[in-house]
Design brief:
The chain is mostly helical. The chain contains 6 helices and 3 strands. GO terms for molecular function: calcium ion binding; UDP-glycosyltransferase activity.
Length: 137
């Protein structure tokens, strides 16, 4: 497979698979271009990473709306008259997202809320323990 010149050398890298959770937790990650499946959504939210939402089908579309409109921790792309997201649109949304301090701070605050709820003793932890206990009965 031939990759665009921009992805050769030091400007980028394309791989067949990467440990998404590990990548998203790296401090160099400024945003997450996501198709908004539920696992990716939870991984992005739990790492406090703002989203650029690019959903394809099924629940991804609703998840993308939720990320952008309800949680306000991401932006969606606008397609052109041919249904294509242009390079200009991609560049514009990256710039808008990275310059928006409100989105960054909301992402970080949401991460704190999620992580406080997941840690031992949090509501999610307790719900999981009740569920496991119920299964054993």
């Amino acid at each position: 497979m031939e990759y665009p010149t921009e992805f050769k050398g030091h400007k980028g890298k394309i791989v067949s698979w990467a440990p998404q959770q590990k990548v998203l937790s790296h401090p160099a990650i400024a945003c997450f271009v996501s198709h908004c499946c539920w696992n990716s959504t939870m991984e992005g939210l739990s790492n406090g990473v703002p989203f650029l939402c690019w959903p394809y089908f099924a629940e991804q579309i609703q998840n993308g709306r939720y990320i952008c409109d309800e949680l306000k921790v991401g932006l969606g792309f606008d397609k052109d008259q041919n249904g294509v997201v242009s390079c200009k649109e991609l560049k514009l949304k990256v710039e808008q997202l990275l310059s928006n301090e409100n989105v960054k701070s909301r992402s970080f605050e949401l991460k704190k809320k999620l992580m406080n709820n997941i840690v031992k003793g949090g509501e999610s932890w307790e719900n999981l323990n009740r569920f496991v206990k119920w299964l054993k009965e």
